[in-house]
Design goal:
Length: 258
């Protein structure tokens, strides 16, 4: 799941200052982890520790209250009665990569993705976004080729994945909905030639850069088998020890390199 977190860190400086270029420094002084990383860690920690997803997400979210959450999610964090709020936002999809690594059947990956999403994002599009990303990670890590992944996700979720980043990019704008950002992030992976290329393509859409790079990066790590050591090293240096501890525990259990 370091692929998802690295995508978040790389994309962080472009979330509100979008670029349509693939050529940019991977890391700048302000490159940092955001809510995407915190909540990916929360899902991973829930899996490792056997905790309910909602409890872990609430706990980690409150540990990092200024990580850049949306307004509705901030309200959920501060509420004494934590009920889902009908969201179709891409927050459900950005945090779900660990599910695709941790479970060993398509059915269980989809079930766990739904469970991880519906504690906040119980709108059908919010659940679908999480399921599609988790399934993409699962398919990628279990040896499926890109065209098969494209076909299976298109058939199951109805996403138009026969587009290309080059065709999408000119008119694409910032969009936090699952339906308006998750397919495009998946396409960034499908169009890529390497892990780094997937992240660059996702950022170059000029949209919700950190989240789309997080999604594309999580799938790309599973497909290409690694995140380059130079990228992992920089990302590790920008994470607090308690976050790297969860990544290491998750990696040791599920064979994911950090």
């Amino acid at each position: 799941m370091i692929g998802a977190i690295a995508g978040d860190v790389i994309g962080s400086v472009f979330e509100h200052r979008p670029t349509k270029s693939r050529e940019f420094p991977l890391f700048r002084e302000g490159s940092c982890f955001t809510d995407d990383t915190v909540l990916t860690i929360a899902v991973a920690d829930a899996i490792v520790g056997g905790l309910p997803y909602g409890e872990s997400i609430w706990r980690w979210g409150n540990r990092y209250p200024f990580a850049g959450y949306g307004g509705a999610f901030r309200g959920w964090l501060m509420s004494d009665v934590r009920t889902p709020y009908g969201s179709w936002g891409n927050g459900s999809a950005m945090r779900v990569a660990p599910v695709g690594w941790a479970f060993d059947s398509e059915e269980e990956v989809l079930r766990q993705a739904q469970l991880s999403a519906e504690v906040t994002h119980d709108h059908p599009e919010g659940i679908k976004g999480a399921e599609s990303v988790a399934l993409a990670v699962f398919l990628a890590r279990t040896g499926y080729g890109k065209e098969r992944i494209r076909a299976l996700l298109s058939e199951r979720f109805g996403y138009e994945l026969d587009r290309t980043v080059e065709a999408i990019r000119p008119e694409y704008r910032f969009d936090i909905s699952c339906q308006g950002s998750v397919p495009e992030a998946i396409i960034a992976f499908l169009d890529s030639e390497s892990y780094e290329d997937a992240v660059r393509l996702a950022v170059s859409l000029g949209g919700d850069a950190d989240t789309q790079a997080c999604i594309a990066g999580g799938i790309a790590e599973a497909f290409y088998g690694e995140v380059p050591a130079a990228i992992r090293s920089v990302v590790r240096s920008r994470l607090p020890e308690e976050l790297t501890g969860v990544i290491e525990s998750f990696g040791a259990r599920f064979g994911v390199e950090f």
